[in-house]
Amino acid sequence: MKVKNLVGERFKERPSDCVVDSHALMVRGGYIKQVANGIFSLFPPARRVTQKIEQIIREEMDRIDGQEVLFPVVLPGSLWMESGRYQSVDNTLARFSDRNGTPMVLGMTHEEAAVQLVREYANTYNRYPFMIYQIQTKFRDEARPRAGLIRVREFTMKDGYSFHTSQEDLEKYYARCYRAYERIYARAGAPEVIAVKSDSGMMGGSVSHEYMLLTDIGEDSIVICPDCGYRANMEAADNIVAPTRAEDAPLTKVATPGCKTIEEVVEYLKGDAVHSAKAVVYQTNLEDKFVVVFLRGDLEVNETKLTNYLGENVHPAVVTEDSPVVAGFIGPVGISPDVKVVFDSSLKGSNGLICGANEQDFHYTGLDMDRDVPGAAFVDVAKAFTGGICPVCGKPHLTISRGIEVGNIFQLGTKYSKSMGMTYTDQDGNSQYPIMGCYGVGVGRLAASIAEASHDNYGPIWPISIAPWSVEVCCLRADDAQTKEISEKLYNQLENAGIDTLYDDRDIRPGAMFSDADLLGAPIRVVVSPKNLANGEIEINTRDKKIQVKVPVVEAFDKVREIIATLQAEIDATVPESI
Ligand code: ATP
Ligand code: MG
Predict the structure, then answer these.
(1) Virtual torsion, Cα 197, 203, 204, 205, nearest 10 deg
(2) Alpha carbon distance 363, 128 (integer Å)
(3) CB–CB of 342/291 below 8 Å?
(4) Is 18's pLDDT higher than 60?
(5) Could you tell me the CA-to-CA distances from 425 to 244, 389, 437 in Å, in that order?
(6) Of 54, 148, 193, 310, which is most buried, counting CB atoms within 10 Å of its CB?
(7) Is the pLDDT of residue 335 over 60?
(8) Which pLDDT tens digit goes with each residue over 39-66?
(9) What is the pLDDT of residue 203?
């Protein structure tokens, strides 16, 4: 490919609307163009990266006996009504009517379509197990698209669905898939992707893992124990705290004029947040019923755990004069019976606490949970925190890292086979529901995350396995006959050898040529210039500058091949064996 013919423009200035580097570099490098909020077209460089990622994924899915299929993007609403998700999923699911008024949806995930495809075929036990997958467009009307390809509304996903006749068989396959995912990220050259236990959310099911690429710009928080290796998504991480103990003191009402936040109160009373019970107020989405969570003053509510416990969604409360709570002064003693109260386990067995007195401008000191709130039930609804206790090894060294979810795997169970009436006849002639697993990877998000993890100010530093082009030949003086001839020969030689090569023979300044090359990110750059040719040499560099050599012209082609092999071998060395 000649750079002068490459569709798309590259430019110097960072676009003002790009908050993360990968987004800025992909716009500057002519990889992507926004069509609408969260909807992008891909120029050739981005398409080449995603194609390579898709091929890696395809090979790994085939290696674990996956069979590639293709479901439609547009699905009848009736299929989603069967599973119940037509009703239960929010506006992220795009619903519309066709010309006959039939409800339709745009596929945001394809469990229903997978069951629909195989429910007649897989009606007897000897057709199991099997896994089907597709690499296809999803549409999700996300509330907050952000960060270029990292969170978009339309994207390509590899989604796989496996079907089993026993939980053991699902678990065996799940382990193979877990490993296949590790291989995918390693082969794509993604640094630091870790699998974490996750909350299954709307997918249902119990065991699931998310693959997180660690980077500061990630939306997810991951709780990691450096001592025993425990790791979990913040949404699913248990929070363990020892009771807060102090000297016994009576429950005493004290004036705290105007002190509404826990910080203001403890400062006014010269206490500290650990020795306080703060209240966080929510309302249920369906009935607007008030829910007050009491937890240790320095902790935060984990809304996912709270929602799971309540079995319904909540939103931060809108407190007015008519509400059954006094904003800023809410406490567990004497709280209105119209409020649902949840005690976080951080308060269990604690005493000597400051808390609200359910009266304007008053708090209590000396709250003793056992004495003053007898019979309270405690549940874990707080966020794990830095320095918190590991739920597995018990050491107080938890750390919190940020990450981007680049894939996830679920043990779904029978949620979809049951709701959609998919059965098979077992060996004894009984009718059974198959057990399912599902497995997703976002292709564009993975590409962008790798660029996020591996770039400099000048452009992405693509791993050779997914780079849009492996090599770029820069002809620094196209007007010089010898330079031009040698460049062209090398370019043709590389192309003929099946090496994807970009060739820049534009009559522009070397600086401009190199900035474009930096943005396009070919891992190997071959620079042909009259200056080096005067010594009979060609310069070969890697994009990360780890290799910078000059070789005799006749050796250039072999040297490039050798560097490609070295870079590929470095990646291969990180790929675990498949199972
Ligand atoms: P998230 O929590 O980030 O919204 P999710 O839990 O909704 O992700 P899944 O439904 O499991 O994700 O989708 C599988 C994979 O598809 C994710 O791991 C991610 O790589 C990708 N993905 C999901 N939503 C998006 C999106 N809006 N834009 C780009 N990729 C996405
Ligand atoms: Mg999502």
Answers:
(1) -50
(2) 63
(3) yes
(4) yes
(5) 57, 48, 20
(6) 148
(7) yes
(8) 999 999 999 999 999 999 999 999 999 9
(9) 47
Q: What pLDDT shows up at residue 167? A: 94
* Count of other CB atoms within 10 angstroms of residue 413: 19
Could you list the beta-strand ranges (E) of 60-140: 66-68, 74-76, 95-97, 103-106, 130-139
Tokens 């796989």 label which residue?
A: 160
pLDDT given at position 202: 45
Question: Nearest ligand, CA of residue 198?
Answer: 1
**305 φψ region: left (φ > 0), alpha (ψ -120 to 50), beta (else):** alpha
Query: Tokens 């918190």 correspond to what residue?
Result: 388
The pair of structure tokens assigned to 48 is: 């080449």
Specify whether domain 17-210+403-453 bears CATH 3.40.190.10. Answer: no
CA-to-CA dists, residue 385 to 44, 196, 321, 350, angstroms: 43, 16, 34, 19
> CATH for 252-379?
3.90.960.10
Domain ranges of the chain: 17-210+403-453, 252-379, 469-572
Q: Where are the alpha helices (DSSP H) in 164-302?
A: 167-187, 262-268
Supply the DSSP string of 278-297, one letter for each residue. Answer: EEEEEEETTT--EEEEEEET
Judge whether 455 and 489 are in contact, CB under 8 Å: no
Rounded to whole angstroms, the Cα distance separating 518 from 512 reads 10
| Fold exhibited by the domain 469-572 | Rossmann fold (3.40.50)
Cα(475) to ligand 1 centroid in Å equals 42
Residues with Cβ within 8 Å of 283's Cβ and at least 6 positions away in sequence, in order, are 289, 290, 291, 314, 315, 316, 317, 318
Distance of CA 284 from the midpoint of ligand 2 (Å): 21
Q: Assess whether pLDDT exceeds 50 at residue 163.
A: yes
Question: How does residue 206 score in pLDDT terms, banded at 50, 70 and 90?
Answer: confident
Helix axes 556-572, 481-496, angle to 10 degrees: 40
The residue nearest atom 16 of ligand 1, judged by CA position, is: 442
**Nearest atom, ligand 1, residue 159 CA:** 14
* Residue 193, token pair as written in the block: 């992707």
Give residue ranges with CB within 6 A of ligand 1. 109, 140, 142, 151-152, 155, 157, 405-408, 440-442, 444-445
Strand bridging mode 340-344 / 314-316: unpaired
Phi, psi for 157 (deg, rounded to 5): -125, 145
| Amino acid identity, position 319 | V
Sign of CA dihedral 297, 303, 304, 306: positive
Distance between Cα 228 and ligand 2 center (Å): 29
Q: What atom of ligand 1 comes closest to residue 219's alpha carbon?
A: 3
End-to-end Cα spacing for the chain: 39
Instruction: Please state, in angstroms and as integers, the Cα–Cα distance from residue 20 to each residue in 125, 441, 445, 516, following that order.
Output: 50, 21, 13, 20
